User: What shape does this take?
Amino acid sequence: MPAPPLFQIEDLHVRVAGSDGQPGAEILRGVDLTVGAGEVHALMGPNGSGKSTLANALLGNPDYEVTRGRILFKGDDITDWATDDRGKAGIFLAFQYPQAIPGVSVINFLRQALSARKGMELSVLELRLAIMEWMERLDMDPAFADRYLNEGFSGGEKKRNEILQMAILEPEVAILDETDSGLDIDALKVVADGVHEVRRDRPELGVLAITHYQRLLDHLRPDRVHILVDGRIVESGGPELAERLEREGYESWRTTTEVTAP
Assistant: This one.
């Protein structure tokens, strides 16, 4: 029997978690997506299309409720798994807006996260050696290891730190939620180069990059591009689809969804 795909989303419907007994608004309205080992997929869409909702649903954020469909990881249905179980299994989310955690250093945060992922306690010394090696490969200042997580970091430093986490935690699937948000061209290239460096070390890593912009894809060179409009993937294709989107904008796809929507 062939191995199942690395990561699958099947007919996924998601709404905001309700309050006061009232259901929240439906945001995703039937998303299908399959990411194979070693593949890079890009998900593009305008503001309000549901991109970040999808990222949050994939990591099990309780603020979002899956009402139909399922999420599969290596053939296992993980739709109802807790967020920490998904992380331990090898699913990683790089946040659009990484949070600062005062009082917790980068190295201690990574030690706790990696110990949970591996199911065993790791010493600070052995982790520091691994971090120093990756910081050199990612062209990061070694002093970052002892700074409080994201406290006082610039936008580019926060995003580079997310790539460091991805390298150290060794996930099997990485979801990059608008990791290009707020970055200038130079910082964007640094982050994209970091993703390539991690993939050189772990070529089987599957990547789903969620973005507004073609400029990130110029560096990441995805295998597949998907366009999300009004909670649905309205078209999928190769890298040329992103180039077409750059020329035409989202308007033609918006028109399509208005015509076909029930």
Observations:
- Residues 7-260 form a domain with the Rossmann fold fold (CATH 3.40.50.300).
- The chain has nine helices and twelve strands.
